[in-house]
Amino acid sequence: MLQFILKRLGLAVLVAFTVSFISFSLLFLSGDPAAALAGETASGEDIEAIRRLYGFDRPMLVQYGDWLMSALRGDFGESYYFKLPVASLIGDRLGVTMLLGVCGISFALLTAVPLGVVAAIRPNSIIDRIALFLSVAGQAMPSFWFGLILIVVFAIQLGWLPPSGAATWKHFIMPTIVLGYYAMPAIMRLTRAGMLDVLSSDYIRTARAKGANETRVLFRHALRNAIIPVVSLAAVQMGFMLGGSIVVESIFALHGAGYLAWESIARNDLPTVQALILIFSMFYIVFTFLADVLNAWLDPRMRSS
Amino acid sequence: MASVTPHDRLLDEITGPTPGQMLRKRIFGHQGLLIGLVVLILLTLVAIFAPLLAPHDPYAQSLMNRMVPPVFMGGTWEHPLGTDHLGRDYLSRLIYGARVSLLIGAVAALISGVIGTAMGVAAGYFGGKVDAVVTFLINVRLAMPVVLVALAVVAILGGSLEVVIVVLGLLLWDRFAVVMRASTMQVRRREYVAAAQVIGASTPRILLSEIMPNIANNLIVVVTLEMAHAILLEAALSFLGLGVQPPTPSWGLMVSEGKNMMLFEPWLVLIPGAVLFVLVLAINLMGDGLRDVTAPENRS
């Protein structure tokens, strides 16, 4: 087990460094970052001054090393636009995004797991068909469009919920649904497939044969085993979701890290963008690592692969 | 031919249906696949013949005819789906928008398909260090937040159709690599591959004529999924104002432009979003259907 954890940890660290290099390299895609920063009207001398000020005249690898060492200490430089430390800028906004992520994944699990279980208990029933339809439709629904429809119906027509902002818990209801439905189809399908698989296994037949009541069989025996892969999928989805929060936050004007990313990209605020890409990647790396460890802990067969 | 003779029936019982007949029967018996296929073909025809079908120039502005409602909301047949805030015919923009979505979906899926398949097949066939490197690259790619990276790169390089296509193509290869790697690993252990190796066939030949044909069904399924993925991502990027730029008629951009008038003219948002939903749904239904039909033993 320890060997497995160390191996996965090593891989995670290696992935993290590679991602950090890629997100740093983005700065150089534009050709000359100093010229981009100075603006179109700047003279050659201005550009040269900016180049020296920001250290763009040094070799790229040196700049990367510098950036990485600071980043490891939690210093991501200064935002071009806000003229504030990127780290504190992101720190202020990350709470909203994480809250949204937790709400989103909880919503997805609370709806998808029961649906998947019922669908597996009664294959080809009405509920199974509804669940299948929801998962197929859910995958095809553009999230920004879904969000706008919710705003039209629940905020404008019915007036039940506020259309944008993050002041109260009511502001989080629609964003939670939009972010959560995105993860629903995958979780539901996996729950259904896992339950179908487990329900046809020998130990379930044994449990039924010895006369355990059906509720006990379903929840004590079947669900507990079928849920293992779902938990790790949920962790991975959570990582994806934080990255996907950019669309949801922009629709509902939730001023979280996703919204900050959108603003910063539109404003060419590269230090903030680099830091956000790195941070969102780190979340994904940490979540998948935890999911792998959890899986290996729950299911010893995973440890060998 | 009209009547079946006893002799024919006997022959049928002895030989049974051929694999081709069975496949045809499964295809025509699969509702989702048929619906998806028909809708996709229709929308492709619409995209190809857009100049003939569109009643107006999708770029022609008319300040006299701004925000005309669709015909079912009190408008006229002059503009069946009304006009937008610049007086451009909405139906014509919608029709030309099919071109943008399908082009981006198809070309991005092609680019990512070539990259991902090459990586996946190499990893699955050669194993060892090649596999370790490819698996590592897949991990790196999965860790990068797609929407964020795509937005940032498109913003830096400037939002044009070509840039969006290339960026999405370079980002969406992960599922191809994962699925092709797993499929190749399965096929590699079959006897006919060993037989080809024994008679001295070259590695490229084995890959092309032994491995590829036997993983093609999985490849097609991933192509459809990634096409849908690319279309949704383009729409999201354009909706956020950092994808395809105005005045190009992109469905995501149309939703974004209609957003500010959503209060009074909800159709401006509803119509392009609905068409986008139908297109992606059709592609997904087709992909799911193809998976069922080509691999009936793996039905979930």
Automatic annotation (TrEMBL), chain A:
<dbReference type="InterPro" id="IPR045621">
    <property type="entry name" value="BPD_transp_1_N"/>
</dbReference>
<feature type="transmembrane region" description="Helical">
    <location>
        <begin position="275"/>
        <end position="298"/>
    </location>
</feature>
<dbReference type="Pfam" id="PF00528">
    <property type="entry name" value="BPD_transp_1"/>
</dbReference>
<dbReference type="GO" id="GO:0055085">
    <property type="term" value="P:transmembrane transport"/>
</dbReference>
<dbReference type="GO" id="GO:0005886">
    <property type="term" value="C:plasma membrane"/>
</dbReference>
<feature type="transmembrane region" description="Helical">
    <location>
        <begin position="130"/>
        <end position="160"/>
    </location>
</feature>
<keyword id="KW-1133">Transmembrane helix</keyword>
<feature type="transmembrane region" description="Helical">
    <location>
        <begin position="226"/>
        <end position="255"/>
    </location>
</feature>
<feature type="transmembrane region" description="Helical">
    <location>
        <begin position="94"/>
        <end position="118"/>
    </location>
</feature>
<dbReference type="InterPro" id="IPR000515">
    <property type="entry name" value="MetI-like"/>
</dbReference>
<feature type="domain" description="ABC transmembrane type-1">
    <location>
        <begin position="94"/>
        <end position="291"/>
    </location>
</feature>
<comment type="similarity">
    <text>Belongs to the binding-protein-dependent transport system permease family.</text>
</comment>
<protein>
    <submittedName>
        <fullName>ABC transporter permease</fullName>
    </submittedName>
</protein>
<keyword id="KW-1003">Cell membrane</keyword>
<dbReference type="Pfam" id="PF19300">
    <property type="entry name" value="BPD_transp_1_N"/>
</dbReference>
<keyword id="KW-0813">Transport</keyword>
<keyword id="KW-0472">Membrane</keyword>
<keyword id="KW-0812">Transmembrane</keyword>
<dbReference type="InterPro" id="IPR035906">
    <property type="entry name" value="MetI-like_sf"/>
</dbReference>
<feature type="transmembrane region" description="Helical">
    <location>
        <begin position="172"/>
        <end position="191"/>
    </location>
</feature>
Automatic annotation (TrEMBL), chain B:
<protein>
    <submittedName>
        <fullName>ABC transporter permease</fullName>
    </submittedName>
</protein>
<feature type="transmembrane region" description="Helical">
    <location>
        <begin position="264"/>
        <end position="283"/>
    </location>
</feature>
<dbReference type="InterPro" id="IPR050366">
    <property type="entry name" value="BP-dependent_transpt_permease"/>
</dbReference>
<keyword id="KW-1133">Transmembrane helix</keyword>
<feature type="transmembrane region" description="Helical">
    <location>
        <begin position="133"/>
        <end position="157"/>
    </location>
</feature>
<dbReference type="InterPro" id="IPR035906">
    <property type="entry name" value="MetI-like_sf"/>
</dbReference>
<dbReference type="InterPro" id="IPR000515">
    <property type="entry name" value="MetI-like"/>
</dbReference>
<keyword id="KW-0813">Transport</keyword>
<dbReference type="Pfam" id="PF00528">
    <property type="entry name" value="BPD_transp_1"/>
</dbReference>
<feature type="domain" description="ABC transmembrane type-1">
    <location>
        <begin position="98"/>
        <end position="287"/>
    </location>
</feature>
<dbReference type="InterPro" id="IPR025966">
    <property type="entry name" value="OppC_N"/>
</dbReference>
<dbReference type="Pfam" id="PF12911">
    <property type="entry name" value="OppC_N"/>
</dbReference>
<dbReference type="GO" id="GO:0055085">
    <property type="term" value="P:transmembrane transport"/>
</dbReference>
<keyword id="KW-0812">Transmembrane</keyword>
<feature type="transmembrane region" description="Helical">
    <location>
        <begin position="163"/>
        <end position="180"/>
    </location>
</feature>
<keyword id="KW-0472">Membrane</keyword>
<dbReference type="GO" id="GO:0005886">
    <property type="term" value="C:plasma membrane"/>
</dbReference>
<feature type="transmembrane region" description="Helical">
    <location>
        <begin position="219"/>
        <end position="244"/>
    </location>
</feature>
<feature type="transmembrane region" description="Helical">
    <location>
        <begin position="100"/>
        <end position="126"/>
    </location>
</feature>
<comment type="similarity">
    <text>Belongs to the binding-protein-dependent transport system permease family.</text>
</comment>
<keyword id="KW-1003">Cell membrane</keyword>
<feature type="transmembrane region" description="Helical">
    <location>
        <begin position="32"/>
        <end position="54"/>
    </location>
</feature>
